Amino acid sequence: MLNIYISNNIEYWREKLRFLDQKVKCYENFDLSINYNLGICDSIDDLIKLKDINNKCILIFIIDNYEQIFEYQKFNIHYYLRKNFFEKDIEKIKDSLIALLKNKNKVIKYKSGLIEYEINIDNILYIESYRNEIIIHTKLLDYSRRFSLKKILKELDNRFVQCHKSYLVNIENVTNLFYDHLEINNIIKIPVGRKYQLLVKNKYQNYQNRNF
Prior knowledge:
Elements: E1 2-5, H1 10-16, H2 18-25, E2 34-35, H3 44-50, E3 58-63, H4 68-72, E4 79-82, H5 86-103, E5 107-112, E6 115-120, E7 124-130, E8 133-138, E9 142-145, H6 149-154, E10 160-164, E11 167-170, E12 174-177, E13 181-184, E14 188-191, H7 197-208
């Protein structure tokens, strides 16, 4: 679900944004549901309400000028459309949405003995290396596979980053980042090696700002 919040003149912008709907839908038959009817956000109080749903949908906010981005940054808006640069911004958003939809429901497939496994990468929390195997920790189960972190990283998308010689993490599930470790869902602690600190920090900040 794509939710677009409009600060004023809702009918005018709803019509213009149909361009985005058409552009994404015509790309490999992706289905993009757009909801313009969650209400008009024209105050900070309205934006506070978005915090309750912004992890369930993609939020686009139309702004009058670039300076407003800094004002609204703490509300984790996914994308901004500047009124004076509408065509330029909507093209960037279109490309980002297509990349996002291409990775949706992507799976890792492998065979162990007579059993074939399919793991949805959206469900992967982190991956650790143990001796000659990797252990893929998901939201439901853990899977063991004779493989290396270097090879498995090539099968994943840019949400994943190596944070330690023995760990990869899905940055979407990182809730806190510290100097020498990070937390997944505020519970699981994963070490961050000195070699990977800057890489992880940049990836985490980019995700917070939705610059993927």
